[in-house]
Amino acid sequence: MAGNVWEWCWDWYAGHAPAFRVIRSGDCNSDAQNGCAAATQRAARPNYRGGDEGFAVGLRPITSLAPGALPDGSLGVNLQPAGAIAAGAGWRVDDGEWQAAGATVAASAGPHTVSFRPVEGWTTPPAQAVDVTPSQKKTLTGTYVRLPDEPPSAILTDGLPTAMVGVVYEGLVEADANATRPVTFSAKGLPAGLKLNSRTGAITGTPTKAGVFTVTFGAKNKAGSIARQVRMTVLPLPAWAQGTFSGWAVMTINDPTAELDREYPGTVTLSVSATGKITGKLVCGGTSYSLGQAAYRTAEPGDFDDLVLVGSVKVGKQVLGLEGAVGVAETEVGGITMTVSWIDAWGGDEDVPPSCEFTAYRNPWKDLGTAAVLGRYAGYYTAVLPSDDDVGSGFLAFTVDTKGAVKIAGKLADGTAVSASSALVCDDEGTVRTLISAAPSAYKGGAFLGWVEFLAPGKGDGVMLQARDGALWWHSRNPQATEEYGEGFEREVGLYGGWYSKVIDLKAYYENGLTVGGVGALPELLISTKYTDFDPDSEKERPPKISWTEMGYAEPAAGGPEGLTLAVTLSKGIGTGLAAPKPDKPQRWAEDGEVGYEYGDTNEDGEDNASALTLSFTRATGLFKGSFTLWYDYISAEDWTREDGGVKQAHVSKKVSFEGILTPNRDEGDAEGRGFFLWGDQSEYDTGKVNRDGEPIMKAYKFNRSYDFWIDSL
């Protein structure tokens, strides 16, 4: 039941003013479905009276709803005052979404709870219970009361960790919880490189000066202000985190033409100043990439044992974010304990190129106490680069100064001149090493890269050299590099050598003398031979002569300079040079119609120098160079004579030049000196195109083959 009185309304019925007013609900004679509902409206004159009016039913069946369902009502909440609304006041029904002032939301029929959002500086209205009536709107009011302003009573500095020069800093000062917001902050005497956000209290930046600083912080709001002095400590950047770093790098870039990812090895160099300014670059595949926005950070605030290098590298139009861990360790080198450090970094996504990675070691030789260690390694070194493949050996010379700088010069086995700068570094195992990086000219698009270890000197011996992990890496991608490697190659090249005395007495060092140990597999020569003969198909009494030319590869008629003794030349009783025997020359002979050539000791001086070897040696550098001649017969004399048709007998010579370096040998079985000579050759490769007949189009190219040349001791 609703009411039980006649509800007379002020409303005019359907606009019939001043004739009819609205009366609500029904009478006792009305049916429950249509006439007795509390919301029923009927018309009556204002002076009408009836004894059966005023009967109303609170709930009637609704045939359009499912059994037990009720229509939704709605809720609206007015919030006040305007200041609370501006500060973020809001309300919600039960645990629903927060609503703004004046909003209306649908609510199911039945009981609900309206709660209010807390606003800083205002009291929160108590929650209100409300019973929602179907199809009706309920409107509530929530009133916030402004709290009195509280001035800051304390400045909290728990969020101020210790700082370090060159390391990105993040700190925070706060006002006490009771202080009325907003609070503005100020600071006087902050360490250089840091700045304060007056609105949030955040302190950011990179300190540039070490020391203990007295900083006056202020906090202020409408009710008052407070100040506090705080001592901030800025530590100096440790020596192991600054200086120069050098090492290897690899850039991986997608090649859309070949539809594959290519790795381009190279080098990385970094420079870190005492104030933490970091600059650097990567050089991979002949392209230079600058390191941008580089800085040190900490994994955890105030934890300087685990520094992190962050930065970026731009590859084309893409910028790779870069992050690397800084490692540090104590190690012993030559009986002296040293602190060594390195950086392992990665940039980009390994699965989605471009990406890059590098490892760089710090040059430690400016640290206190390391000069004595470095003094053992300063000097001049020679080394050779043998390969397991049937190719020549490159050679290198290293000059290490008293500051750890390394100059590298020499040649690779393809004739590429190497001239590079590097640095002596030390790893966490106490191994002293330097990095070699070069771009072979004959194999464009490739690289020559690797670490060279300087082995600790033994008593009475000089420092030895060897390749880290036994080999250096030589990579070619030129499709015309060699006939055998149509798409380039990857080859491991060894390295051995050691300290070399520029005033070496060759006679004392090589008391039994030296010999040409070998020249590898001697090359064949592509030659053409012209043949003449009587026409066998002619029926004439005197058949005419015919001639033809055949192409083929011929092997050398003489065995080359292998086994030839090299004499030590003296200057004031000291062995300063090397000399080859007097050269011989093949002698032509003819007997009983046969023609041939005699090779060997034709000048009868006791030395068989049929290859006419000449050699010059520079004592101060260990470099040697020279030439020899290879002889090739057009045809073999025992196979052809003039009686066989007048074959033209002749031979040709090919002069080749070699070069290499002498390196002190302290491992039996290795050559004392090694080098290479180049042999011009030609071949062809498939261009991938076809002609009109569908046959592949080939293209000829020339290249140099590399052959070994080495010197042994007797």
Name the poorly predicted regions. 13-17, 60-70, 479-487, 636-647
Strand content: over 45%
Structural class: mainly beta
Overall radius of gyration: 48 Å
Overall mean confidence score, pLDDT: 83
- Kindly give the count of domains: 6
Please give the share of residues in helix. Answer: under 10%
Secondary structure: number of strands: 52
Determine the N-to-C terminus distance. 129 Å
Largest sheet: 11 strands, antiparallel
Specify the number of helices. 3
Shape category: elongated
Fold blueprint:
Blueprint: E1 7-12, E2 21-24, E3 26-27, E4 41-44, E5 53-55, E6 73-80, H1 82-86, E7 91-93, E8 104-107, E9 110-116, E10 122-123, E11 128-132, E12 137-143, E13 145-146, E14 155-159, E15 163-164, E16 169-175, E17 184-188, E18 194-196, E19 202-205, E20 211-221, E21 224-235, E22 243-255, E23 260-272, E24 278-284, E25 287-298, E26 307-315, E27 318-333, E28 336-349, E29 352-362, H2 371-375, E30 379-385, E31 394-400, E32 405-411, E33 417-423, E34 425-426, E35 432-438, E36 447-455, E37 464-467, E38 472-476, E39 489-493, E40 496-499, H3 506-509, E41 514-518, E42 525-534, E43 545-554, E44 565-571, E45 574-579, E46 587-591, E47 594-598, E48 614-617, E49 623-633, E50 651-662, E51 673-690, E52 696-713
Parallel strand pairs: 6-12, 15-21
Antiparallel strand pairs: 1-2, 2-4, 3-5, 6-8, 7-9, 9-11, 10-13, 14-16, 16-19, 17-20, 18-19, 20-21, 22-23, 22-29, 23-24, 24-25, 25-26, 26-27, 27-28, 28-29, 30-31, 30-40, 31-32, 32-33, 34-35, 35-36, 36-37, 36-38, 37-40, 38-39, 41-44, 41-52, 42-43, 44-45, 46-47, 48-49, 49-50, 50-51, 51-52
